[in-house]
Write a structure and sequence with these properties.
Elements lengths: L4 H10 L6 H11 L7 H11 L5 H13 L4 E3 L7 E3 L6 E5 L5 E4 L2 H4 L5 H4 L10 E4 L2 H17 L1
Parallel strand pairs: 3-5
Antiparallel strand pairs: 1-2, 3-4
Bound molecules: zinc ion (2 copies).
One zinc ion binds next to helix 7.
């Protein structure tokens, strides 16, 4: 989604975040991708247009934006945190081979609920479903690998 600076200012104001040029650039880069980048990947992207930006600024800003509810953190197993600029309710397909994360928008999943008996007094604020497996590319690579080694013999 292409965001103009007016959109960014409005969102920041709504979440009580002070706007700086660098913060806006970091948020924009994250909001415009669906790749769920790591903080370092985001730094590499933003640096292309803002060569003076520091890695620390990107990490710190991600923390500020996360606390404000403008971005969310996605943790996949023991890997480094990935970030998502889409904070609307959605779910994820996670590839165990290449670690890609793909968004799933599904109204039925949004409606999932825990029965009162299982909730054990929790006041539930939300949920996110993760599907783990192998993407099409990784499945193909797995199928190709044994064939290639057979051809070599
Ligand atoms: Zn994959
Ligand atoms: Zn997502």
């Amino acid at each position: 989604m292409r965001l103009n600076s007016q959109d960014i200012h409005t969102r920041f104001r709504r979440h009580a975040v002070r706007v700086t040029r660098q913060r806006a650039a970091i948020y924009q880069a994250l909001a415009e991708t669906t790749s769920h980048p790591t903080a370092n990947e985001l730094y590499q992207t933003v640096k292309r247009q803002h060569p003076m930006i520091s890695r620390n600024t990107v990490y710190y800003t991600l923390g500020v934006l996360r606390q404000a509810g403008l971005v969310q953190e996605v943790n996949v197993g023991h890997e480094v945190a990935r970030f998502d600029g889409n904070v609307t309710v959605h779910h994820h397909l996670i590839c165990l081979g290449c670690s890609q994360i793909v968004d799933v928008m599904d109204e039925a999943l949004n409606q999932l609920a825990v029965s009162d008996g299982q909730a054990r007094g929790f006041r539930i604020l939300g949920h996110r479903v993760e599907f783990h497996g192998y993407c099409a590319g990784c499945q193909r690579a797995k199928l190709d690998a044994p064939q290639r080694s057979r051809q070599e013999h």
